[in-house]
Design brief:
This protein has 746 residues and is α/β, with parallel strands linked by helices. It is 31% helix and 17% strand. Strand 14, helix 20 and strand 15 form a beta-alpha-beta unit. Helix 3 packs antiparallel against helix 13. It starts with a helix and ends with a strand. The structure holds 1-deoxynojirimycin (NOJ). The site of 1-deoxynojirimycin (NOJ) has 8 residues, from loops.
């Protein structure tokens, strides 16, 4: 009886303190902090440590370990958040345990990797980035948040914003590519999409920018490997993208598995406290990656779990994902004085504030509405938008003799290849709660687009990744019976993503052999590529008349690609990651430095120049590259002046004419080159782009306005400023094909 009264009393305190938190803007976070403080005063040390612990449910697994006692732990008040648990019923059951069976009734946060859609799956993030359409990307994340929140979730482990220049690394599929400036815009768009304008709405979720920091630069492109780079590179190229997410108000941040300059991120006080909290003023909470506190032991900076827990708590980590390190060790560490209770209180406060921001104290079941679940999950509008984005993310890499779009005269189409009819592969890696059976394959998309008006033949030809040649002859005979071939090649979905680095990024298995045999039939062939990273495909580029890069397009992949293949939508996507010619060139990215011995393009193999004996320096397809079914011509670049003062606007414009026979969208790109810097500068840096629709035969004037301060970078003393002097300015269709002019700043 006495016990029950205590429960009720505490519950009332919490309810009273929670009253009025609904629909409050973020600026009232100090009110939330006060409320959190009042709860913290009621908490035992163990209950506090419980809030700092995150465990996976047994619904699915995204890492090497699982605790089968997580439900008991929730009952004991030893869990602050759960991940990999969704659907209204499941979440409600777990939440009920937390709010009804624990002493303080504190609700749980529910997290999940909602990376490119929840149930309705959108193209992989690298594909979405190829749209260069931040409004579409933001809307895709909005749809993802609406669906995730309708299934009980209120926290996504996204956006992943790790800048990546090495296509061997499998997780390049999850980011926006190799450019910092574009990456910043996309990171902010993603945060806005997930979090909306008010986190207390029932269809918005907490974002979690990851992986802090520089996880995208592992040595040799091998996942989880060491990162070592200059302070300047870190500040100039890698950090700004996380900062953009922080500035956009992201609610949480995840530490990375890697070390930077000898210190693992999860125990890196400089990174988590000095930089993130003190300099960047980040006020959300910091969660580790999957058991990355435990990994401090094999990293070699902690002798045992207790030391690992101490290092990370003192570095600034608020929540331990799956490692039980905080749960098992923090209590002793506080008792011994190795971690102060103030540190614990601060961490708990940040987590409770997030719960207030979500409105969980008002209604712990606010994400558990059966009606919303039924209405929102895979609703037709979401699917229609996913189809649009799947089409928009396609990048036309080659199109000789106008092989694409498929001519109307074609009567029989052969759809050949191991990825032509594979539902699961359309999802790509990190496909949330996406279901393979809901996906539209290329064969299905073409079948529904042609609706019986064209005769369709299909053949697999070979598997994605083995050496079984037994299907090639049959595929060739199918090709011979058709008058047009679509060849679906690439990687399977598990060949990119986490723990999926490759040393050879060419077409796997015997797919090139299949391609050769099919192309030799002399039929018109359009290759449709599915892959999660840039591939080295010079032979394919040489032989195939047309190549369309489609990434992994998600639930509506087949329909979206069919829209492009038949010309209902003119492709406009452009690469945000360089496609190298061969693996030996990697890392290869557009914004590299000139070196003291740059090559002479007229004589690229000249001795004593910065080149290779056996390969050009240039990529197969450069950053920013992508064709259209129409053609565009660029005029010379015009500037408002030739010489600028520090407070002037540099206004650059170009006329772009659609010289082809259909309307099309073009992504017009602006780059600069600081000719003489205090520190060496890249040969080109993206500083602007416009995506413009130009009707056939029409000319559009595209204008950019940049400020001298936009040309700032970290100088020798790490001051962030620009150099007066001469600059080159380029405008063009990609980072290689540009028109150039020059200007100076006094
Ligand atoms: C490990 C991954 O690195 C991270 O991105 C993901 O969010 C967690 N696992 C949880 O699934």
């Amino acid at each position: 009886m006495k016990k029950t009264r205590l429960h009720l009393g505490l519950f009332l305190v919490i309810v009273l303190f929670s009253y009025g938190c609904k629909n409050q803007p973020v600026s009232i976070s100090s009110v939330y902090e006060k409320k959190a403080d009042s709860i913290i005063r009621l908490m035992t040390l163990d209950e506090k440590i419980g809030q700092m612990s995150l465990f996976t449910s047994d619904m699915s697994s995204t890492g090497p370990t699982m605790r089968d006692d997580y439900v008991d732990l929730i009952k004991q008040g030893k869990v602050g958040a759960v991940f990999n648990a969704f659907t209204v019923d499941f979440v409600r059951d777990l939440q009920k345990i937390a709010v009804e069976e624990t002493r303080l009734h504190i609700p749980l946060i529910f997290g999940f990797d909602v990376i490119h859609g929840h149930r309705t799956i959108f193209p992989i993030p690298l594909g979405q980035a190829a749209t260069w359409d931040t409004a579409a990307i933001e809307k895709a994340e909005r749809v993802a948040a609406v669906e995730a929140s309708a299934e009980g979730l209120n926290w996504t482990f996204a956006p992943m914003v790790d800048l990546a220049r090495d296509p061997r690394w499998g997780r390049v599929m999850e980011g926006a590519g190799e450019d910092t400036w574009l990456g910043e815009l996309i990171a902010a768009a993603r945060v806005r999409g997930f979090q909306g304008t008010l986190l207390s709405d029932n269809n918005t979720i907490l974002g979690c920018v990851k992986h802090f920091a520089a996880y995208g630069a592992p040595q040799g492109g091998r996942d989880y490997h060491v990162v070592d780079m200059s302070e300047r590179s870190l500040y100039e190229w890698y950090l700004p993208v996380y900062k953009a997410a922080v500035d956009a108000g992201v609610a949480s941040i995840m530490t990375s598995f890697n070390e930077i300059a000898g210190v693992p991120s999860t125990s890196n006080k400089w990174l988590l406290t000095d930089l993130l909290r003190d300099d960047w003023k980040f006020n959300g909470f910091i969660v580790t990656d999957y058991s990355s506190i435990n990994e401090l032991i094999p990293h070699g900076v902690a002798a045992d779990l207790e030391e690992a827990a101490k290092l990370s708590a003192n570095a600034g980590v608020d929540m331990d994902m799956q490692g039980s390190a905080f749960l098992n060790c923090l209590s002793n560490l506080v008792k011994s004085g190795d971690v102060s209770e103030k540190t614990i209180d601060e961490a708990v406060k940040r987590i409770l504030v997030a719960k207030y921001r979500l409105g969980l104290f008002d209604d712990p079941y606010k994400y558990c509405s059966k009606e919303r679940e039924e209405k929102e999950i895979m609703n037709p509008e979401h699917r229609a938008f996913a189809r649009e984005v799947a089409a928009k993310s396609c990048v036309l890499l080659k199109n000789e003799n106008k092989t694409l779009p498929i001519p109307k005269s074609v009567k029989t189409i052969a759809i050949i290849g191991p990825l032509a009819d594979s539902k699961a592969d359309m999802l790509g890696f990190w496909s949330g709660a996406g279901q393979a059976e809901k996906c539209v394959t290329l064969v299905e998309g073409i079948r529904s687009r042609t609706a019986g008006t064209v005769n369709l033949l299909t053949a697999k030809g070979c598997n994605v990744d083995d050496d079984d040649v037994s299907g090639i002859n049959q595929a060739v005979s199918v090709a011979r019976r058709s008058d047009y071939v679509i060849l679906a090649l690439g990687e399977n979905r598990m060949m990119s993503g986490e723990a999926a680095s490759r040393t050879d990024i060419s077409l796997p298995g015997i797919q090139m052999q299949l391609a050769e045999a099919i192309i030799k039939t002399g039929k018109p062939v359009a290759v449709v590529l599915f892959n999660g990273r840039p591939l080295t495909i010079p032979e394919l580029d040489y032989m195939a008349p047309a190549i369309l890069e489609t990434w992994f397009g998600g639930t509506e992949a087949g329909n979206g690609i069919a829209d492009v293949l038949f010309g209902d939508l003119n492709p406009s996507g452009k690469l945000t990651m360089t496609f190298p010619l061969n693996m030996g060139q990697v890392p290869l990215f557009y914004n590299s430095k000139n070196t003291g011995r740059p090559i002479n393009p007229e004589n690229p193999y000249e001795k004593f120049k910065s080149n290779y004996l056996d390969s050009p320096n240039t990529p197969l397809y450069p950053f920013g590259y992508g064709l259209s079914y129409t053609t565009f011509s660029y005029s010379d670049v015009k500037l408002n002046k030739e010489s600028f003062e520090s407070n002037d606007q540099i206004i650059a414009s170009v006329d772009v004419t659609n010289t082809g026979d259909r309307d099309g969208e073009e992504i017009v790109q602006l780059y600069v080159h600081d000719l003489v810097g205090e520190v060496t500068r890249p040969v080109k840096e993206l500083k602007g782009f416009r995506k413009v629709l130009i009707k056939k035969g029409e000319k559009v004037s595209v204008t950019f306005s940049i400020h001298p301060a936009d040309l700032s970078y970290y100088h020798q003393d790490m001051s962030f400023t620009y150099d007066p002097g001469n600059f080159e300015l380029f405008i063009g269709a990609n980072s290689r094909d540009t028109k150039k002019t020059e200007f100076s700043i006094r």
